[in-house]
Amino acid sequence: MPASVTGVLRWQFDLTWALAEYHLDRLEPADFLWEPAALCWTMRPGTAGGWRPDWADSEPDPVPAPTVAWLTWHVGWWWSVAADHVRQRPARERDDIRWPGPGAETVAWLRELRTEWTDALDGLTGDDLDRPAAYPWPADAGLTVAHLVAWVNAELMKNVAEIGQLRLLRAAGRPV
Description:
single chain; about 180 residues; mainly alpha; two-stranded parallel ribbon; two-stranded antiparallel sheet; 6 helices; about 5% strand; globular
């Protein structure tokens, strides 16, 4: 792959991250656990401490509306695993990902993931981008690290837009 592919993927990531920062800077602790609907997925206190995500191994119908808490955990989960794959480390399991809780700790965690991700991106060569990738799709899908990086950009853009929309809806519904 020409080096310009890396540059375009990094540019797209930086553009998406700018949107993330817009919303992360404005999140309030109460935004995280605000439930936008009766049917929603959120983070719940675990029996042994910490937080546990609502989860189903097969997607329910209707799909529950997520909270900002659930979305930030979700981003942390898939992004951590994507970084493991790009760096060729053993991939963490979903239950290994610990959500820090509502507020500044989660925002800091996402920013740390961003730093880890950009460090990984900046170290990729054309050969690295051509390497087969088995995440988030099956190993036999025939996709590459370049596809994985593009998927991270798209998934991050979608999740950040969802976080922003929830933040705006909660703010718009507050009594004056």
